[in-house]
Request: fold
Amino acid sequence: MAVLVGLALIAFANLTAVLASRGRIFSDVASLPAAKVGLVFGTTDRVNGRENLYFRYRIDAAVRVWKAGKLETLIVSGDNRSIYYNEPEKMKQALIERGIPADRIVCDFAGLRTLDSVVRAKEIFGATSILFISQRFQNERAIYIAQAHGMDARGFDARDVEAHAGMKTKLREIGARVKMWLDVNLLHTRPKHLGEKVSLPH
Reply:
C-alpha cells in the first residue's frame, strides 16, 4: 500500500508542474510576450573540467530573449558558496561578454535551489511578474512554485542536454518535483536566506 501511495505521489507531483505551466512556456522568441524581469537559474560553467552545456544553453537562451527586446532586466540567481564557486558572477560575466549591459544584470547570490530563487525574486527583488529562463524541466517546476506564491510567471526554454548527462538530470527531476509539491503544500518551505530588499534597475 505504501508503495502505491508513493508512486501516486510521484505521478501526481510530476503532473502538477506540467499542468501549471501549460500555455506559459515558450521556445519561439518571436511569440514570447515581453516581460520586465527575467531570471536565469544558476548552474556551474564547468563539470569535472569540461564545459557544462546546461550553463551554455541557458546563457544562449537569455541572450536570444534580450536581443529580441523582450526584457528590461535580468536576475542571475545561483549558488555563491565560496570565493572559488560563484554561479551568479560567472553567468553575469558570460552575459556581458555576449553584449548585455552590466547595469541591467542583477546577481542573486542566495539562489541555492529553485524554490529559493523563485521566492527571493518576489520577496527580495520585488518581481511579481517574471520570465524564467532555463531548460523546460526547471521552467515547469519554477512556474508551479511561482504560482503558489502569487506570481505571474512564464518560461522560455533553453536547449536541453542530451545523452548521459541529460538522462541523469531527468531522473533527479522526478524526485525534485515530489520535493516541490511537498515544499509548497505540506512543508511550506522558505528560502534559506532572505535579507534586505534590493531594488531592480528602472
Remarks:
- The two ends are 55 Å apart (CA to CA).
